[in-house]
Each structure stands twice: as C-alpha cells, then as structure tokens.
Amino acid sequence: MSVRDIPVNTLAGQPSSLGDLGARTLLIVNVASKCGLTPQYAGLEELHKRFADQGFAVAGFPCNQFGEQEPGSAEEIAEFCSATYGVSFPMFEKIDVNGPQQHPIYAELTATADANGEAGDIQWNFEKFLVGPDGSVIARFRPMTAPDAPELVEAIEASLPR
C-alpha cells in the first residue's frame, strides 16, 4: 500500500487521502504552530506556490508530540496558518507521528532513511518526506533542513511529474 492510499482526514475533518491530491510530487511535513522552526511555514508555502503548476504540493500534518507545540484545535490551527503565513497548501488532521498511536502514514514514512542512512522515529517538528507521483518515498529531510535548502529544492525538481 502506498502512503497515497492510506485514509486520513483533512484539517476540517473530512475523509480524504493523499491520493486525492492527484499524481503530484508531495512534500509531507509534520508541523507545529509554537515551535522555533514554525517560520518554516513561510518557506513551505513558497515551495508550494513555486512548483504547484508543475505537479507539486506540500501536505501538512499538525502534531503535538514535540514539546506540546501544537496544542490548538483544528480551527485554531487553520486560523494561525492562514493569518500568520498565508498557508494555501493542504493541511490534514492533527496526528501522532511516533509511538503507539502513530498514524499509518507515518508508519510507512519513518521506514525511509535520511541522507545519513538513519530511519526510524521523527526527531522533531518540520521533518520532511518527499513522495513521488507514484507514491514512492524518495527522500527524507530532517527538521533543520530549511525549505529552501539546495538539496531539498533539487530533489523536488528532479521528482516532478514529467
């Protein structure tokens, strides 16, 4: 099963899946509103807009597992993202990315190793996974990798649908 096929709810609570976004390259990110890395929202939105016409989308999954930095309700998260960063990319329900309640999408994603060959648990907010149009997980970028990092942008460009 591809991560595209796993059921998930939108931030508004509607049943969905990543497959509903079409045959796009996706950058899946666990996000939080009260983190030192929260300004990455701006860079993620920039990436989303820059490559949207080429078959790309960012997909955000709020998570409150790291320092309780995403305590808000779905409505509060949506308002924060819209008002503060103008987020237009798809946002999904708040989930657990590690542990016994880990969402099945993250069970699949965390099997992917990063550039150092390390797979396993998410380290912190804003860990990024690049997923190809076919649903294969192409690359994993740790939280400190900025959205405009050359290695991330190059990986996106190389994986866009042809």
Distance between the termini: 23 Å
CATH superfamily: Glutaredoxin
Spans with pLDDT under 50 lasting ≥5 residues? none
Instruction: Report the structural category.
Output: alpha+beta
Question: How many extended strands?
Answer: 6
Proportion of strand residues: 15-25%
| Arithmetic mean pLDDT | 96
Instruction: Tally the helices.
Output: 4
Q: What radius of gyration results from the CA coordinates?
A: 14 Å
What sort of overall outline do the alpha carbons produce when their principal axes are compared? Answer: globular
Description of the structure:
The chain has four helices and six strands. Strands 4-3-5-6 form a four-stranded mixed beta sheet, with helices on one face. Strands 1-2 form a two-stranded antiparallel sheet. The protein has 162 residues and is of the alpha+beta class. It has a single domain, classed as Glutaredoxin (3-Layer(aba) Sandwich), CATH 3.40.30. The chain is globular and about 40 Å long.
